[in-house]
Amino acid sequence: MTRNLTARETRGTIAHVVERFGQTSRGVPLEVYLPQSKPVRYLVLAAQHGDEPESTVVLSHALRAVISDDLAAAVVLAMNPEGLLRGMRGNGNGVDLNRNFPTSNWGSAPI
Which of 7, 85, 98, 99 is the most buried (most CB within 10 A)? Predict the structure, then answer.
């Protein structure tokens, strides 16, 4: 199935609805781009590791190309905006977010 994309000359800005869902411990906004007229079917995250900006670049290009009516995902361009701004794996407090998810079965010993 072929989808229409936004015209190349209009891809300088992201036309999707953006919503702030929080902020980092140092006050950097956390934002999500949402579908305008559809329910969210997927969640797409980028920049969990601040020293790996490629996912944000690629996802930003894709988000700019998708027509607003066709977006079916909630899109977070930077899960770790402090790390992304500083080029660090961890956040502004030095925490590696990829290894910091709360779980009911966490233990300090390797599994």
Answer: 85
Among 34, 42, 40, 3, residue whose Cα is nearest residue 16: 34
Half-sphere exposure of residue 35, counting CA atoms within 13 Å on the CB side?
A: 14
The 3-class secondary structure across 64-97, one letter per residue, is: HHECHHHCCEEEECCCCHHHHHHCCCCCCCCCCH
Structure tokens that stand for 20 in this block: 């702030």
Report pLDDT digits (tens) over 38-83. 899 999 999 999 999 999 999 999 999 999 889 999 999 999 999 9
| Alpha carbons 2 and 91: distance in angstroms, whole number | 39
